[in-house]
């Protein structure tokens, strides 16, 4: 299989710089998307999460492809995430075991805590006394138990990352946060560089397909509307110059910064298109020009964490 560039995590694990996102797709769409991505296009990484409710479908299709000899387990790096009701260190180890069962894996390649704010078992009440330091202690236990080759965080603020790095026995290996043309996260990138933490961008295409979402608990997640990054004039100009698509330019913008991408698609032609970004490069000047695009827009403010002491976005809420 073709080798894609990787990012070396602090513990030596090599994480592919590109993978397939799987959020907000039906079971059937995910099954087909993962099959096309892994068995046809050779995607080296699949990103899922407990809350996407598709770990079982992904586990089944991967198991089938491995049994048929079409892929080997080690060909695909699997990332999953613990949802908010499983962040409490009293529950996270067992929750990680449940993820592995659904994925039919002995070990996941990267396990993230999906948010910094812990909720009760029912998923509705804030556990205000559980700090990010507590959450991280649970993640370290999972790592020490050998259930994940690497561990990390998602949707944590720079301040939370800094705080945990002061006491962590196992460093944060990866931060997965919203990061795209209109939310470039330079401060986060600086902090992670300082600590040797790798970053994964989600929403690298500006998440054009996101629709408001209701969690199984009934909590609503609504997203800000925003201009479409795929239509940005500078992106379109570079797409024309390199004879690539705007999506490929948006992905390359992130990759040039040494940050991993996990574009989601259930459309076979786009699944192939999004992986086909290693035959061109943007110059440093072009990356700077994209950095200088003046519009700024965070898409994912995750309102359900509002009022929790570990709400990572409290300073951004109006
Ligand atoms: P995204 O990857 O920026 O955008 C996905 C959308 O773009 C889909 O609607 C897809 O449509 C469309 N698309 C894909 N390729 C395209 C192309 N080449 N040209 C035009 N449109 C294209 O957004 P995302 O799904 O929000 O983020 C990516 C992944 O990151 C998620 O799937 C998930 O795995 C992860 N994520 C993590 C978090 C977190 O809290 N950690 C939050 C959000 C997302 P089709 O599918 O119809 O082709």
TrEMBL record:
Pfam families: Aldo_ket_red. Transmembrane segments: none annotated. The record marks 81 as: Lowers pKa of active site Tyr. Signal peptide: none annotated. Gene3D superfamilies: NADP-dependent oxidoreductase domain (3.20.20.100). SUPFAM superfamilies: NAD(P)-linked oxidoreductase. InterPro entries: AKR, Aldo/ket_reductase_CS, NAD(P)_OxRdtase_dom_sf, NADP_OxRdtase_dom. Residues 18-293 form the NADP-dependent oxidoreductase domain. The active site is at 52 (proton donor). This is NADP-dependent oxidoreductase domain-containing protein. It comes from Pristionchus entomophagus.
